Amino acid sequence: MAYKPLDEKTVIDYIKSRPKVWGVLFDKDAELEVKEVGDGNLNLVFIVTNRKNPEQTVVLKQALPYLRVAGDSWPLTRERMRYETQALLKYNELAPGLVPKVYDHDEEMSLVIMENLKEHEIMRKGLVARKRYPYFVDHITTFLVNSLFYTSDLYLTGPEKKLLQAKFVNEQLRKLQEDFVYTNPYMDSPENNWNPLVDDEVQAVRSDGELKMAIAEMKDAYMNHSEALIHADLHTGSIMLNERDTRVIDPEFAFFGPMGYDVGAVLQNLVLNYLSHYGHTEDPEVREEYQEYVLSMVRDIWNEFARKFDETWKNNNRGELVPNKYWDFPGGEEAFAEFRKRYIHRILQDTAGHGGTKFLRRMMGIVSVWDITSIEDPEKRAVAERAAIHIGRRWVLERKSVDSIDDLVEIVREEYKKVAG
């Protein structure tokens, strides 16, 4: 059928027209109820449930032909839903159980029908409520390693990677990130928004030549370092989980880019949550205890990612970058181990650079994060924002001297203490 945006009424007729769904996921006598829950920046999202049997439920996500957060004056291709669907299918192959199942998709209608994660919550909100997730480190590092390693030149042959890469051009959403992450926040642009109480910090960033050159280097890497299939929007609002299970959602920005971008996005969002508790958690002892838990996740995610990545590479070196025969000489095993170590260390430095840039864009660009914006007291919010800007600046500028995750964690501690006391 020709494209048209669905609503809570037309979704029901559409679901009944899909043979992979109606009579399969839903009984043919099902009484459907629909709720639109899309609070994101780009899409419509509907939860469809059978009143007679609430276990029969799906999520339908449809792309709009414009940037939702900016309105229909900002046109945007609906092709992004094809990229999201392709990414979800690939992730189901590479990291089964860590993304929603895909039941059906309709390219003409720019939509996908997938598993309703009704027992999960958005991680961002759980973290603000000081919840703990004992399996998250293991789950997210498995997702990162599997999605990045198995789509890179470390595992794929040259033709295999290039054919896969051709399916993920994603030119419009890449352009969106190039503008909104790496360019527009650092100059006058009408969509930018920030807390007036940190205006001095915003202006200082915009006039810092060394910092802006470093951000330009990170933009160049984002645009040209096609290392692996990256999610490219892997923040805590794109993760749904509970105490037992973790799912990565919303990979509509997916393309072949730098591995450190995804890792940096996860770590940076956790640090933003750490900072947000200055405004969300009044009791200083409770606040400090939870903040330490969040920082331990940051440290553990990197260390476990590095360990799993190295082990996976060592045992699955079938790609064309450095084939096993390349190391077939006396001392070759040790040289290969050292090469892996250097490669992973470079991912850490990229993690600092991309993550640091994302700190800055969240504080002075078009889209902030709920952890911070939900702080009601603007003065307390400004403390968290000021710390985020300082941390982001240092992660970017000091990235080439970073030797371990402890260096990045120490920057967080230092800058938070300076601002929060």
Can you put this structure into words, describing what you see?
There is one protein chain. By secondary structure, the protein is of the alpha+beta class. The chain has two domains: 106 residues, Phosphorylase Kinase, domain 1 (2-Layer Sandwich); 300 residues, Alpha-Beta Complex (Aminoglycoside 3'-phosphotransferase, Chain: A, domain 2), CATH 3.90.1200.10. The chain is built from 14 helices and ten strands. It has a five-stranded antiparallel sheet, with helices on one face. Strand 8 and strand 9 form a beta hairpin. Helix 4 packs parallel to helix 10, helix 9 packs antiparallel against helix 13 and helix 10 packs antiparallel against helix 11. The longest helix has 33 residues. The mean pLDDT is 96.
What is the CA–CA distance across the termini? Answer: 60 Å
| Low-pLDDT runs | none
Percent of residues in helical segments? 40-55%
Query: Could you say what the CATH architecture of the largest domain is?
Result: Alpha-Beta Complex
Order of strands across the widest beta sheet? 1-2-3-5-4
Structural class: alpha+beta
Question: Quick summary of this structure?
Answer:
The protein is an alpha+beta fold and 421 residues long. The chain has 14 helices and ten strands.
Task: Name its key features.
Aminoglycoside 3'-phosphotransferase, Chain: A, domain 2; alpha+beta; 5-stranded antiparallel beta sheet; globular; 3-stranded antiparallel beta sheet; Phosphorylase Kinase, domain 1; 2 domains; 421 residues
